[in-house]
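User: Is it possible to get a 3D structure for a protein together with its bound compound? The compound here is FO1. I've pasted both below.
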Amino acid sequence: MIVVLSGGVGAARFLEGLAAVVAPERITAVVNTGDDFILHGLHIAPDLDIVTCTLAGVIDRAQGWGIAGDTTECLQWLGRLGAPTWFTLGDRDLALHIYRTARMREGATLSMVADEIRRSLGVAVKIVPMSDDPAPTHILTDHGELHFEEYFVRERCQPAIRGVRLHAAGPVRPAPDLLALLTSAEAIIIAPSNPVVSVGPILAIPGVRAAIAATAAPVVAISPIVGGAAIKGPAVPMMTAAGMTPTALGVAEAYADLIDGIVIDTIDAELAPAIDALGIKPLITDTIMRGLPEKMALARATLELTGLAIATT
Ligand code: FO1
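Assistant: Yes, that's possible. Here is the predicted structure of the complex:
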């Protein structure tokens, strides 16, 4: 099993390429739930839905989130009623949240519901939340403590970050079988996601780092930072606030105790010697995922870095 530690948009795009070069059944995406929050009384799970809908081919490609061709009739009426409309939930998107909330109210776990939804949408890649416990990521700002989505969407990343608080609702246990999945994996890939608020919440779960350190599998990452900038999202200010250097080298340093190799973009080739000096094998390639061919090429390069003789299509 190839296990991919995943956040949202960047991870989803990488997974599209990976699922096109190896059998999708061989892939398990372990997805961040730190962005999950309750809105309109519904359990919203942004990264789970981004990964699932992207792999199902129904994602709004321009945004990277939401469902293609969606409408916002319900949201407009919610606005008329005085409900918050800062988080754009389309009519089709709402079906996911209504279904998830109803099933969890019946006693289903987030893991069970994530599996039901991906199967309903015909996704062969297994999709596993990092935990079934609430694990909200909070951003400490000079405007107070905000949930990640309040900071990222409602406040548009304007408030100055004072810090990041992972697992802000209390102890977070690994999803069922997550630790076994990591120790028995044939390869572990850390997707090109925000190291602080997308991958960080997964690694912060008790037992996860130890399981990755203990696994016999090759562990490789793909840098989400290219030329000192993030392709999407607030990775640079967040890495800085977390005391990391917001470069591909800084990403390698953040994962230094876990990874054997890291894929970096050609723009960052001059960082390769410093990465090599960390005992981490750099692979330099084009990491900008413009279309499916680039996503497939990046997936092949990443698999090559694992050293696994994985037959790719
Ligand atoms: N991101 C935005 O910037 N604005 C939105 O209104 C928004 C709505 C939204 C709805 C469902 C969903 O699954 C994701 C959504 N996102 C939105 C993306 C989300 O805020 C972030 O991209 C992820 O949480 C970070 O990985």
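The chain has a mean pLDDT of 96. The domain at 2-134+170-306 is CATH 3.40.50.10680 (Rossmann fold).
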